[in-house]
Amino acid sequence: MKLFQKKTHMIDFIFPVVLLFVFAVSALVVTLFAANVYQSDVYNSTRNDTARTSLSYVTEKIHAGDRSGNVKLSTFDGCEAIAIHDEIDGEKYITYIYYHDGRIKELFAKADTVDTVFSADNGTSILAVRNFTIEQKSNGLFRLSCTDDKGETATAIAGVRSR
Question: What is residue 148's three-state secondary structure?
Answer without folding.
Answer: coil
